[in-house]
Amino acid sequence: MQKSRDKWLVVGDNKTSFFHASVKASRQRNQLTKFIDENGSETSEIPQMGKIATDYFESLFTSTGSRDLRAFFSGLPTKVTETMNQRLTREVSEEEIKNAVFGINASSAPGSDGMNGLFFQEYWNVVGEEISKEVKAFFQTGVFPLEWNLTQPLLEHIVSPTQSAFVPERLISDNILISHEMVHALRTHERISKEYMAIKTDMSKAYDRIEWKYLEGLMDALGFCEKFRLNEAERIGEITGIQFVEGGPAVHHLFFADDSLLLLKATEAECAVVCKILSEYEKVSGQKISFEKSAITFGKNVEEKLKMRIKQLSGIVNEGGTGKYLGLPECFSGSKVEMLRYIHEKMTARFHNWYAFFLSTGGKEVLVKSVAMAMPVYAMSVFKLPKTTCQTLTSAMANFWWNAQDGKNKLHWVSWERMCLDKKNGGLGFKNLEKCNQALLAKQGWRLLMDPDSLCARVMRIRYYPDGEFLEARLGSRPSYAWRSIVFGRELLVKGLRRNVGSGERINVWLDKWLFDSTPIAPLRKQIIFDLDLCVCDLINPQIRTWDRGKLEEIFFPSDVEHVLKMKPAFGKLDSYEWVHNRWGAYSVKSGYWLACSLDQSEVRRNALCKRSLNDLRSKVWEVKTAPKIKVFMWKALSNALAVSEELMEYDAETTVVKCMEDSKHWLEITNAAKAEEFEISRRQRNKMGWKALERGRFKCNIGISWSKAYGLVGAGWIVRDCEGKTLIHSMRAFNGVSSLLEAKRLALIWATESMISHKVERVTFEIEASELVGVINRPKAWPAYRAHGEELRGLLSTVKEWQVALVTREANKGAFLIAQSVTKYLKLQSYVAGGGPLWLNELLVSKFIVS
User: Fold this and answer.
1) What backbone phi and psi angles, to 5 degrees, belong to 360?
2) Full-model pTM
């Protein structure tokens, strides 16, 4: 654990074996013994090494000079509007600064001052004013231009769909999937393999050579010149991108940071156009294309003579197709196990590194979970790893855990499958790679389903399901390995999908799964004769925009009628999908992995679920406040994974060491009674929260909710305070006949919003204990399960001039909650509005430590 930055700042330089090994390894790693000059000659002489270094950096950082950029950028369409400019140049508010600080992970690695996010959040009332002052000064006088402020929300409107880097909701995996489809088509597609090629360019020191004048011109023109020139050539027909069918998306280029993949016809004319554009780009930007590292991938059936002429014309002699694009194989044309072997090699190299020998079992657990298991994730998020690859990676992790090294096998006391169980079921929480792989690929399927207009989804649709839906698509003829992998992930995805009712026009009542009862289900048929084409929209009364209860009771059983009436359709919206295994309704890899594990019926899992009492004891081990290696030792003792006599006899091992005991349970019996107290779970003290000041002229409305399930009664209360924390007004109200806590929260927020409108409160921050509503209001795409609530609430909130909705804890919302609780606890059903705060809460409201 000494590697963690927090501990390193305190004891990192102590005279320990770890410190000495770290210094020696760092010294050896940083030592320069020889240089290679531009001609490839090696030298170890100090004077020559100095000259080589000087020449290299002078060549790298010397400006090549750039011509007048106005002509180069002429015709580039303006993408940043006046409204965008106003957003970019407005002054950053104290509320935004505070939200940014509180958005930092509290336990994140500390900065150069040794302070992590928790310090600034806990002592915001002390340091907040100074931090806000410094941040505002930076945006006014800092090195970066003021107009760069808040560019991220606008990037999707400025950056081309073929550029995936640095744009929210666009992933590097999109480029990998599209490029894989294109290269696969160059090998297998009858027409494309004869006529097309792909050029992968590599920029020499891309970020070091860029010219400042070019960046200034780029910002003025608001575009990427290389992309623009290519788009212009495409528009006038000088370059023809790969297009599977007429009317489908034509892909001409893919960009990610400094990696470029250009797709065009394998003709000398189109090659000459691309070479001219790249040459112009070099002149104005200062960048250089490394022809030695660039490659051309020709279609499988392109003539050899034509290949040679194109190579000579472009200056690129390397042929691609077997290399890597963005770190993954361009195409799986050979053994998948061999092509992915590099993952195993990187993992074993990390295990055999110098520091691995100094790690305790607790440190090994961290290394396996945080480092080793992260290595294959990048590949697993795009491709299905072969079983052999998963087995070799699993074997490497298991050998490392049990101290097995090259040539020395060690006994694995607990199977890896059992160690992959979560800690509450007696495992260590390691990941099963095959299940994790499927959960990651299901995420790709979810993105294709929920974002059908993305470039990746359009390419996949035109290739594999041009006339159908993603969920019904088949493998098709000669599919790529990427598509096979996505279909594998889809097998898991469909097991947790439910139709989300909008208009109901595209949901079949009997065939689609649109209800939920522990799993997504379709309703049972009450009648023998039924309409097979009945849609959900036929069950909705369009005049009153609610369910037609008479029709429901006529065709459904009472249990299904109850399920339907609890649903809130998003009237006027398209029907969509939601993921049922988390609250917000959007697929996550974590919930997908949980579903894959819960569907596992292996003997190991069944046996673990049968040993509840022992598993409870094992799970308490991890709550003991002690060193991680001690926790792992206790887990081993409870899992019969210690080399005691009883266990050794099963393997015919020597057991003459009498102190080794006959059973691991004796270890618990002889442990000092005082040590047993460490199993007591200490409760965490809640952090007291003080009043967080708002910017001047803004008000805060805290909303409290109390719901009685037995009586269907809801108590709601709100308190409004000014920017200094002074209580201005409060209110209380009761609601009857409410069947769920979510409905209670919705009614309370609607009532509070309408109250603010009637009291002319124009700039207000609502704080409420409702993560579902806060999530769907602020991030609607991430909470599809509550889409109907989000549409309703955002529509109402839009009538407030300036509003925010934030999540608050019970402790920070105690005043409003106690007002609401008085309805359900003391049956105070009379609604009222009053100035200030209630007298019986006066002491609580004026306290600087606990606020409403």
Assistant:
1) -80, 175
2) 0.70
